[in-house]
């Protein structure tokens, strides 16, 4: 890429020290510097009074009516006040602790002030006086910097580098695409990100660069998907259709229409020569386990092995139980492998697995250890897949000769994220709950109302129901979690025992202990289970119809939804009580949303809106790319357009041979070198 790919120390005036500072900002090459865009702009647009929101930062212009008055109070504290006449009204302007400004403010002179608008008092709290003529000040870019470099230094460096190297900036999108969407040329757009002539030019620049990022990214994703599903990798698993149908007949219920549809999609993938790489999305309680069981049965019916990996031991045990109850033990041999599997048992399992004696292995991360060897692995399923890193998922696949892969997730993923984070997968969605479920009723109460809720609970317990009480998650320390849970446990024991029994479950317990406690709850030996979030995923006790979540505002929407999904699994009306006195508006908003909807997709869209894509999964490992300019939420329409364009391109078989697309072939090659791009 000509001079632009040279390291930054090639720039005149950038010595080793400065180069190091720039490196720490992720700027390695001249190109990186030229495309180190501002993360926001101080959009200090002049506005009129009726356009302004309360607490908004604005520029107001007007005439000073009288000389300002300065009042001093307290130590070094002062308040400078004057009245200003704007086009609409006379307003008060106050500057705190800047008495020296008095010399700059003169009666009957025109003035422009940047400040915060107080809508109630109809007054402006001034932050800065602007020169009335100064146009450049109106829209100033703000860059991420660190202690070692100032905004101004960086801006100067970017400007001088643009003068020197800007001409080397090449177009990287084909002309037909630029014309079709009237996209600004790369060079102009890049420059206008730093030094826009107008707000409009800057907007068009962002649009162009966001399109470029989204488009190149998605072409790349399709390329990956094609690689993942290509024929050479796959195997055609010609399962026994009759056997499979007979198996489905033995299930205790009729599949929902959505379950039937996804079973068909998965089975078609299995038969197909292409390699399966599919994501199965379904809200909590939508019945994914049974779909997994059917897929595993299909594979096993013709002599392949299957693996099911889950994030927690409790969940692994529960899956083991469900599958044991579904399969004929003579026909399908199952085993459970976790970190608490005893050595002797473990050796036996590994031997049976290698000899082909075992058909299905269920387990936690233990499945990806080196000693675990399958004889003929045909299908790998990971449940709650977002809990696993990309590498862990890959390691499991490598246990076999490219087994088909099914990822399952109960976190409904907003469409925009699904496109970007899972763009390389096929997606199946179970968008319907089994018939007869009654929507969970959710209430938000304050801590002081707890005892009246406990009294209400008593009446439900008397009718034979059971309850979960979920303790807050205290991120700093698992010990605190346990202490907290123990205190709540003791309080509830005092309240309910001896009439009802209370159990306690937390992450510090041994696996054996956890299992006993879960079993007691399942068998209704305990009626109330106090638990930390270890029960978050997958636990299934249909007789539990009440859940009380303490300090509910400490949880994100997605997690609250997961937790709540533990009730409402039977045919009785279920309740979720959120106990919280949130301080932040966001916290209050979350509580409110939870009481308004039980639809996981609605919640996930809200969650994404409130937290942004980075925090959505609560983990960096989610595989969501970080875009420099594009914002997956705000720029969703651009993302969608770019996606359709990428698909259309890919569907033209010879696109990469066309002369007009050579520029694209080159850009994609260059992207390959960029380290931050996928893993
Ligand atoms: P999830 O998708 O959250 O993993 P599960 O697979 O645990 O959900 O299913 C939730 C509950 O619904 C289980 O008790 C399961 O037996 C039941 N279930 C699944 N499919 C159906 C169906 N088609 N009709 C009735 N109940 C079903
Ligand atoms: Mg599940």
UniProtKB/TrEMBL annotation:
Family matches, as CDD domains: DEXHc_RecG, RecG_wedge_OBF, SF2_C_RecG
Domain Helicase C-terminal as annotated: residue spans: 449-609
Keywords for the protein's UniProt record, in alphabetical order: ATP-binding, DNA damage, DNA recombination, DNA repair, DNA-binding, Helicase, Hydrolase, Isomerase, Nucleotide-binding
EC annotation from Swiss-Prot or TrEMBL: 5.6.2.4
Gene Ontology terms, MF aspect: 3'-5' DNA helicase activity; ATP binding; ATP hydrolysis activity; DNA binding
The keyword Transit peptide is annotated on this UniProt entry: no
InterPro entries with a match to the protein in the record: ATP-dep_DNA_helicase_RecG, DEAD/DEAH_box_helicase_dom, Helicase_ATP-bd, Helicase_C-like, NA-bd_OB-fold, P-loop_NTPase, RecG/Mfd, RecG_dom3_C
GO biological process: DNA recombination; DNA repair
Catalysed reaction equations from the record: ATP + H2O = ADP + phosphate + H(+); Couples ATP hydrolysis with the unwinding of duplex DNA by translocating in the 3'-5' direction
Listed Gene3D superfamilies: 5' to 3' exonuclease, C-terminal subdomain, Nucleic acid-binding proteins, P-loop containing nucleotide triphosphate hydrolases
Domain Helicase ATP-binding as annotated: residue spans: 269-430
Function description: Plays a critical role in recombination and DNA repair. Helps process Holliday junction intermediates to mature products by catalyzing branch migration. Has replication fork regression activity, unwinds stalled or blocked replication forks to make a HJ that can be resolved. Has a DNA unwinding activity characteristic of a DNA helicase with 3'-5' polarity.
Family named by the database record: Belongs to the helicase family. RecG subfamily.
Protein name: ATP-dependent DNA helicase RecG
Organism: Vagococcus carniphilus
């Amino acid at each position: 890429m000509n001079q632009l790919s040279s390291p930054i120390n090639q720039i005149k005036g950038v010595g080793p020290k400065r180069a190091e500072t720039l490196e720490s900002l992720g700027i390695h090459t001249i190109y990186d510097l030229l495309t180190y865009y501002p993360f926001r702009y101080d959009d200090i647009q002049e506005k009129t009074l009726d356009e302004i929101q309360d607490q908004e930062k604005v520029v107001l212009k007007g005439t000073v009516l009288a000389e300002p008055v300065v009042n001093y109070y307290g130590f070094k504290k002062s308040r400078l006040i004057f009245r200003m006449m704007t086009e609409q009204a006379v307003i008060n302007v106050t500057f705190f602790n800047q008495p020296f400004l008095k010399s700059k403010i003169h009666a009957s002179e025109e003035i422009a002030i940047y400040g915060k608008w107080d809508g109630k008092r109809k007054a402006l709290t001034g932050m800065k006086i602007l020169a009335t003529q100064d146009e450049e000040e109106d829209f100033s870019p703000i860059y991420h910097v660190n202690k070692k470099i100032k905004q101004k230094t960086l801006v100067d460096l970017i400007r001088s580098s643009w003068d020197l190297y800007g001409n080397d900036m090449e177009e990287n999108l084909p002309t037909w695409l630029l014309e079709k969407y009237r996209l600004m040329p790369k060079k102009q757009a890049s420059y206008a990100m730093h030094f826009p002539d107008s707000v409009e030019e800057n907007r068009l620049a962002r649009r162009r660069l966001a399109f470029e990022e989204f488009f190149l990214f998605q072409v790349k994703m399709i390329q990956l998907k094609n690689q993942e599903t290509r024929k050479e990798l796959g195997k055609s698993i010609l399962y026994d259709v009759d056997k499979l149908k007979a198996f489905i007949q033995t299930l205790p219920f009729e599949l929902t229409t959505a379950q039937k549809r996804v079973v068909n999609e998965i089975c078609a993938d299995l038969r197909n020569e292409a390699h399966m790489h599919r994501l199965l999305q379904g809200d909590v309680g939508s019945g994914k386990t049974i779909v997994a069981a059917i897929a595993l049965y299909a594979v096993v019916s013709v002599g392949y092995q299957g693996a099911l990996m889950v994030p927690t031991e409790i969940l692994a045990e529960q899956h083991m139980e469900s599958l044991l109850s579904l399969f004929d033990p003579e026909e399908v041999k199952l085993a459970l492998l976790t970190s608490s599997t005893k050595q002797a048992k473990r050796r036996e399992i590994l031997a049976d697995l290698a000899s082909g004696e075992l058909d299905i292995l269920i387990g936690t991360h233990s499945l990806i250890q080196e000693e675990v060897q399958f004889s003929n692995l045909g299908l790998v399923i990971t449940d709650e897949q977002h809990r696993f890193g990309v590498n862990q998922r890959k390691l499991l696949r490598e246990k076999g000769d490219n087994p088909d892969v099914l990822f399952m997730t109960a976190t409904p993923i907003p469409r925009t994220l699904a496109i970007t984070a899972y763009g390389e997968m096929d997606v199946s969605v179970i968008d319907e709950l089994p018939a007869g479920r009654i929507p969970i009723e959710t209430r938000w109460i304050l801590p002081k109302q707890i005892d009246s809720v406990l009294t209400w609970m008593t009446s439900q317990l008397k009718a034979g129901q059971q309850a979960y009480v979920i303790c807050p998650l205290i991120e700093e320390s698992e010990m605190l979690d346990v202490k907290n849970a123990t205190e709540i446990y003791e309080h509830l024991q005092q309240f309910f025992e001896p009439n009802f029994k209370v159990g306690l479950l937390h992450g510090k317990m041994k696996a054996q202990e956890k299992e006993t406690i879960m079993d007691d709850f399942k068998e209704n030996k305990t009626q109330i289970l106090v638990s930390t979030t270890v029960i978050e995923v997958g636990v299934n006790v249909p007789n539990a119809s009440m859940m009380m979540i303490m300090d509910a505002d400490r949880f994100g929407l997605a997690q609250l939804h997961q937790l709540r999904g533990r009730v409402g699994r039977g045919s009785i009306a279920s309740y979720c009580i959120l106990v919280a006195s949130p301080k932040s508006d966001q916290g209050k908003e979350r509580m409110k949303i939870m009481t308004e909807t039980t639809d996981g997709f609605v919640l996930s869209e809200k969650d994404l809106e409130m937290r942004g894509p980075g925090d959505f999964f609560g983990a960096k490992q989610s595989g969501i790319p970080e875009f420099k300019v594009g914002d997956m939420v705000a720029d969703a329409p651009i993302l969608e357009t770019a996606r359709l364009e990428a698909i259309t391109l890919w569907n033209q078989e010879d696109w990469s041979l066309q002369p007009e697309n050579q520029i694209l072939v080159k850009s994609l090659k260059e992207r390959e070198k960029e380290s931050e791009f996928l893993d």
